[in-house]
């Protein structure tokens, strides 16, 4: 998704802005650009299709420099990826602007501006904003007033940074529906889509709230509400160091993040478990009383986070006896759901800025849920700020577009939720002591599974030339099969689907032949014999089976077309977490062998802040 960096300083900002863009690359983008007010007061812009590195070389060759500027990575929504459509956009040689979001009424504004004499140099929805600001300035408003006057004309979502030639002493910014933070320095201040972009220059941040407008000068920062009344916003100290988002010795961020999972899981559990029970206060003030009233659960999320929700449904219904529905946020937000009495609304998101999930939360707040709980990896995100209860996953920054440690820590957090919901009514067939023991086993168990990296790499070779793959699981392992297939398709571009294994005979069995590898996850649980029978159906039709199975499981049928990789034994509740790891490694190694862009797969964005 688009990324914004900007700043006003005493020193030259070229390298700071480029480094900021590099740190936003993980969000996904197709082009990049930068504008600086030159020492001679001219706006000088440079844009390139493709990587930030190409932009860095171009701005160096063109000798751009200046202490007031804006930079942007674009993820195309309106208009193809091209240099012309890349940001910053200019109005004449006066005003420059960068935008993250979507302006829904841009056609209408464009027609009116065209009639008033503006010509357009891009196909974007963004360009109307910069012309509207220039028009306001022509009517005598200063830059801040012009921005505020323009915001009233816009429908949609935006984070904006604006500078102009006539006012080389300030940068203005605004946020509505897309994230934007301000980085505070000494004699220099910055804006960015997220803190990671600015960690080399500051650890102190203001997180703009919905509708905020900000004015940055070298001397300070002022924040206003939509009517330009000054407002106070707290300053947050980030605990992240600049190298928290470095790749280190790993070839890709995704591999680093897969291997960080034992630590991420331990961090997520830390402070939430005593020797033999859960500490429900971790969910927030009044959590024990609120969660005790819950009689039903509605989970909403997107993508990988949705798969975490699907897994939790098996747990919540099986062990708590509570009805639990799970829905993708983009569907939930546009229907009229029937809300059960005393129903808890749970949103799950790595970023906490996913537009559909946020919109679903806002809709839910009108619908009479007993409370809203966010399970999220970013403490400063809108989802966290707008929810009644919060359980943060402590996965640390996740840079690879393919979600890995965010997913397994979400599952650990959902097991904590299971325990918290079970506290007042008692867990069925499992007590809190057993749940805590299983959670405590997780980091060590995951360490042992990650040692299977080499055999999984060898197995990946069988997938490189394939066009399709099928993933199978049963019970709470079915969502893990879904997650495995999502991982493979998003980074290796191999078409992959997942089915509950019992559903095979109702259609997908027709696809089975030697060119359709079938991956199955087979922990030692009550459904194992059923799963084995389903795998035989595949084998009998010439399918190639790759089975991740508990070491105690005897799959005597192994041989031609039947490859089994034994995993250390995992207890029932944590098996979905354990079996996720080999599927992540499989997808990773297939992608590396295919030579795809593992951390920034084509067409995808890390944080989907537009609808
Ligand atoms: C999965 O690998 C993707 N990155 C994607 O499906 C992601 O999980 C989805 O966009 C939701 O993001 P969120 O968790 O930040 O809300």
Question: Distance between termini?
Answer: 11 Å
Q: What is the beta-strand fraction?
A: 15-25%
Q: What's the total helix number? A: 18
Largest sheet: 8 strands, antiparallel
Give the strand order of the largest sheet, numbering strands 1, 2, ... along the chain: 3-2-4-1-10-9-11-14
Heteromolecules bound: 2-deoxy-2-amino glucitol-6-phosphate
Instruction: Estimate percent helicity.
Output: 25-40%
Described by the principal axes of the CA atoms, the overall outline is globular
**Whole-number mean pLDDT:** 93
| Cα radius of gyration in angstroms | 26 Å
| Count of individual beta strands | 24
Structural class: alpha/beta
Low-confidence stretches: none
Provide a concise account of the structure shown.
With 611 residues, the chain is of the alpha/beta class. It contains 18 helices and 24 strands. Strand 20, helix 16 (478-492) and strand 21 (495-500) form a beta-alpha-beta unit.
Give your account of this protein's structure.
The protein has 611 residues and is of the alpha/beta class. Helix 3 packs across helix 4 (127-138), helix 7 (261-269) packs parallel to helix 13 and helix 9 (303-320) runs parallel beside helix 13. The longest helix is centred in the last third of the chain and has 20 residues, at 575-594. The radius of gyration is 26 Å and the shape is globular. The termini are close together. Bound molecules: 2-deoxy-2-amino glucitol-6-phosphate.
């Amino acid at each position: 998704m688009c990324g914004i960096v900007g700043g006003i300083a005493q020193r030259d900002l070229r390298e700071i802005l480029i480094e900021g863009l590099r740190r936003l690359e993980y969000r996904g983008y197709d082009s990049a650009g930068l504008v600086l007010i030159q020492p001679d007061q001219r706006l000088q812009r440079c844009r390139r299709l493709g990587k930030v590195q190409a932009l860095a070389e171009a701005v160096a060759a063109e000798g751009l420099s200046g202490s007031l500027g804006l930079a942007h990575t674009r993820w195309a929504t309106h208009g193809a990826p091209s240099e012309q459509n890349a940001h910053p956009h200019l109005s004449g040689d006066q005003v420059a602007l960068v935008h993250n979001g979507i302006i829904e009424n841009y056609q209408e504004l464009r027609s009116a501006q065209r009639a008033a004499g503006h010509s357009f140099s891009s196909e974007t929805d963004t360009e109307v904003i910069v012309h509207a600001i220039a028009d306001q300035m022509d009517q005598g408003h200063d830059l801040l007033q012009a921005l505020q006057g323009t915001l009233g004309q816009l429908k949609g979502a935006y984070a904006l940074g604006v500078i102009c030639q006539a006012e080389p002493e300030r940068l203005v910014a605004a946020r509505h529906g897309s994230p934007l933070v301000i980085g505070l320095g000494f004699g220099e201040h910055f804006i960015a889509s997220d803190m990671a972009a600015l960690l080399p220059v500051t650890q102190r941040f203001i997180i703009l709230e919905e509708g905020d407008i900000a004015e940055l000068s070298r001397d300070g920062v002022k924040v206003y509400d939509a009517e330009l009344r000054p407002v106070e916003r707290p300053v947050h100290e980030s605990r992240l160091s600049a190298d928290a988002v470095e790749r280190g010795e790993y070839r890709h961020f995704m591999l680093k993040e897969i291997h960080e999972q034992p630590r991420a899981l331990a961090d997520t559990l830390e402070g939430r478990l005593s020797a033999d029970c859960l500490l429900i206060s971790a969910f927030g003030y009044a959590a024990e009383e609120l969660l005790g009233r819950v009689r039903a659960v509605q989970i909403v999320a997107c993508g990988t986070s949705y798969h975490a929700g699907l897994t939790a449904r098996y747990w919540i219904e099986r062990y708590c006896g509570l009805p639990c529905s799970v829905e993708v946020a983009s569907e939930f937000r546009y229907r009229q759901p029937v809300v059960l009495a005393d129903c808890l609304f749970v949103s799950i998101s790595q970023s906490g800025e996913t537009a559909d999930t946020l919109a679903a939360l806002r809709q839910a707040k009108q619908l009479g849920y007993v409370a809203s709980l966010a399970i999220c990896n970013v403490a400063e995100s809108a989802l966290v700020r707008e929810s009644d209860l919060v359980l943060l996953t402590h996965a640390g920054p996740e840079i690879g577009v393919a979600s890995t440690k965010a997913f397994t820590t979400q599952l650990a957090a959902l097991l904590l939720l299971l325990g918290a919901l079970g506290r007042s009514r008692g867990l069925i067939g499992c007590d809190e002591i057993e749940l805590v023991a299983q959670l405590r086993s997780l980091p060590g168990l995951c360490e042992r599974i990650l040692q299977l990296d080499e055999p999984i790499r060898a197995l990946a070779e069988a997938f490189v030339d394939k066009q399709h793959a099928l993933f199978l699981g049963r019970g709470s392992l079915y969502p893990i099969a879904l997650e495995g297939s999502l991982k493979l398709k998003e980074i290796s571009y191999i078409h992959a689907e997942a089915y509950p294994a019992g559903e095979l005979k109702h259609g997908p069995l027709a696809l089975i032949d030697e060119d359709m590898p079938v991956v199955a996850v087979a922990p030692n649980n009550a459904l194992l014999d059923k799963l084995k029978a389903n795998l035989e159906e595949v084998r009998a039709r010439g399918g190639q089976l790759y089975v991740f199975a508990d070491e105690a499981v005897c799959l005597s049928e192994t041989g031609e077309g039947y490859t089994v990789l034994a995993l250390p034994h995992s207890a029932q509740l944590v098996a979905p977490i354990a079996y996720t790891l080999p599927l992540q490694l499989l997808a990773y190694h297939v992608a590396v062998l295919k030579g795809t862009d593992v951390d920034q797969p084509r067409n995808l964005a890390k944080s989907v802040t537009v609808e």
